[in-house]
Design a protein that fits this description.
Length: 210
């Protein structure tokens, strides 16, 4: 979030200033701009460094409908498993940015669904945001199957601080619950707190400490 200052000076020396607020976000694309990635390869089996057997397809495509609204989709597919859904990013004038996503999956007859909601606001020198993601017990992607252990609810929040030219400090908190994989294995809650500091030490070199 910031302020634009435009100074107009005509041929007679009359000066007029025009100010206007603005808000920029890295997730919302300009109108007509496309961002996409399509990948074809093989899925690596768990506990194997060279076990590439199953062919798979990954794809994502986003397009700016307006300068404040971006829509897109995500798609993952391999034999017997399909997952994907829509994604929307919207800039709320100077009130930040919101992201909404939904997904549906099918894994050999077992269907699942997922949803996510995120919000972020960036203004020098402080930025903050939060997100929540919910998965049904049967949801799957190419990374995990419908019957694998997964988190039904995951929340994240962050606060970032600009310390100076090229230096930032970010504190992040995450909380997730997991479904039990069997009646004998109970669900559990995991909490994570991280602190990350970055600093530019040269023109083409940065240092990250977590």
């Amino acid at each position: 979030s910031g302020q634009t200052r435009l100074v107009l000076r005509d041929a007679f020396g009359v000066v007029r200033e025009v100010g206007a607020p603005y808000y920029l976000t890295p997730a919302v694309l300009a109108r007509g701009v496309h961002q996409y990635s399509y990948t074809l390869g093989y899925h690596r089996l768990q506990n194997s460094s060279w076990g590439y057997i199953e062919p798979m397809v990954l794809g994502s495509h986003r397009v700016g409908l307006t300068d404040t609204l971006t829509t897109g989709f995500r798609l993952e597919a391999m034999r017997g498993r399909l997952s994907g859904g829509p994604l929307v990013n919207a800039r709320l004038w100077r009130l930040g940015e919101v992201e909404v996503g939904a997904a549906f999956s099918s894994d050999r007859g077992t269907t699942g669904r997922a949803a996510s909601l995120g919000y972020s606001y960036r203004v020098r020198p402080v930025s903050f945001g939060a997100s929540v993601r919910s998965l049904s017990s049967g949801y799957s992607t190419v990374g995990f199957g419908a019957h694998d252990r997964k988190s039904p609810l995951q929340t994240d929040a962050f606060v970032g601080l600009l310390l100076g030219a090229g230096a930032t400090l970010t504190v992040q908190h995450g909380l997730l619950d997991e479904y039990p994989v069997a009646p004998a294995i109970e669900a559990f809650r995991q909490q994570r707190i991280s602190v990350t500091a970055t600093s530019r030490i040269a023109r083409n070199a940065n240092v990250f400490v977590t």
